[in-house]
Give the backbone structure.
Amino acid sequence: MMDPDHELFVNIVDEGGLAAAGRRLHISPAMMSKRLARLEERLGARLIHRTTRRLALTPAGERLHADLCSILAALDDAERRVSGTSTIASGALRVTAPTSFGRIHLAPYLQRFIDAHPRVDLSINLSDDFTDLIDSRTDLAIRITADPGPGLTALRLATNRRILCAAPAYLDRFGTPKTVADLKNHRLLAADGQMPWRLGGPKRAVTVEGRSHVRTNSSELVRELTLAGGGIALRSLWDISASLARGDVRQILPDYEGSADVGLFAIHLPQHNPPAAISAFIAFLVTLYVPTAPWDRIGLP
């Protein structure tokens, strides 16, 4: 059996605060605070920063929570093996994914997972923020990044190819750039924080400096402006492949693409025996994007 104070600590983190955990455990807030202080004194380390508005784990608290979750998962798996239900995915599963990607490449297929795993209580949060998995109590994150981050378990599902593209209407009006240097004379489109563009080329990497012709915090707005003939953009294939196939946009300067380091990852906190629901959802993602993601099947070189 796990130490009761360890279980109390895990509940505080999972519920997002002492009061909520106390209600779940039927323990008064004063006693919750006393027992947490007792655990911290015993370990000789502060585990949680307390403020009036939020709970924040210290580095020591993050390590302890990850280790305790692994232990709890192992105990749960041991019980399931004895009862014959170890391979059945069940319980709460909280997943986060980028907004546009989730809408286009996850939502249309979710019913398959729901039908295959009816005992999983699935919650999906679409957000472009890289939320902290512990603070947000997220079980699994789908992220598009070059660096999944330290201390996390990450499975690379696909490479995130990004190409330079523009609508035929724009190219007819302003011409097609023949070299990277020509881009400085064109209308470039990017959301805040997306420039400069760092591109891999046939001989070396290049950086495209500049500012967006229209200032916006929305990558989706950039996409729509590009389709409407507003300028040249660096877009992910998962976002633009259907438009390329229809001829609504054309690839330009095909020898130059966004860095191949950027990929699509399934990320979760490290656990020796992850809950069956997490493993099942990762297996589901693999069926969608591995070995070749659907947006990579459009015939580009």
User: Anything to note?
Assistant: The mean pLDDT is 88.
